Structure formats: C-alpha cells, structure tokens
Amino acid sequence: MENTNAQNGIILIPDFSGFTEFVFNTKLYTGEYIVRQLLSILIDVNHQYFDISEIEGDAILFYRYDSKPSYKKISQMLSNMRKAFNMKIEELSEMLNTTIDLSLKFIVHYGKFSQYNIGNFRKLYGKPIVEAHQMLKNGFAEQPSYALYSHSFLKNSQKEDHNSCEEMQVSEVGAIQYFGNSLA
C-alpha cells in the first residue's frame, strides 16, 4: 500500500531546557501560567509559517511541507523565537518576582512524512518524526541553548544560505549552533 499523502518537509521542535526541575520547584498555577505564556510566544513568533501538530508539556511539534527549505529563513525564525522567549522570561520574572531558569533548544530536521486525522487531531507519521524526537535526547550539546540541524536538513536546504554560519559539526547528527547569553 502506497501512501500518497507523504511529502518532504521540515520538522521543528522548540523544547525547554530545565523543564523537569522547573515543574518540581514551581507552584502548579504559577508554573502553568509561565509555560502557557512561553509556549504562546513561540506560536505567535512563528507567524503561521509552520503548522502545529502537537503541544506536549514544554515542546511544540511544528512542521511545514517544503521541497526547498531555506536555512537562512529558519535560522532567523529560531533567533526571533529565542529572543521573544528570553524577553518573555524577563517580563514574567519581574512581574511574578521569581527566577525562571529555563532556556530554549531547537531541533530542525527534514524528511518525508505524512499525516492522518483521528477525530479533531492531525497526527504526523514517518521516520523523520521519530528521528527528530530522538535528537532531543542527545549528548552532543554542551550548552542548554542551541539549535541542532540534522544532516538531512542541511543537505536539503538552500546551500548558499548556511555557508557562513558558525556551527559546530557533529558527525553523528549534523550541526549545532549555540546561542550566546544575550537576548539576541
């Protein structure tokens, strides 16, 4: 049986680093409020470029069918998301008079996947979905705030877009781009 619904696309997963400790050390209502605000800002900054498949805990599974992804466009979006996330953390920390020790990591992957509906839910299916989730649990990142681009994404993205980017090549998965400690 052939799946005619399968297409090439980008998988993007923004995920909070420090989430488990945050949940255990923050009052339920306060923690829920903070997480809701942080997830909402990531969705807002997306400007509907990516579709949302799922939101679970501290992560969003974004996707976009795209035969020629742009490294430059995705990198700029990640930078914008991170800046908005950090600004929102500063705002919430001040408003709630608390320290919010969360940072943001991104997984960017590319491949062929499909989707199907169950009730009102749209689910993604395919090897790239599983691979992207596996990439979240990696031992390669040395800092909590980074973007990990898979070999598949780098190979399929427009080459001229990422020649000048400062990345740390990780032969097993692709490249990691670390974010500095500033809001940018």
Automatic annotation (TrEMBL):
<dbReference type="InterPro" id="IPR020503">
    <property type="entry name" value="Uncharacterised_Rv2561"/>
</dbReference>
<dbReference type="Pfam" id="PF10851">
    <property type="entry name" value="DUF2652"/>
</dbReference>
<protein>
    <recommendedName>
        <fullName>DUF2652 domain-containing protein</fullName>
    </recommendedName>
</protein>
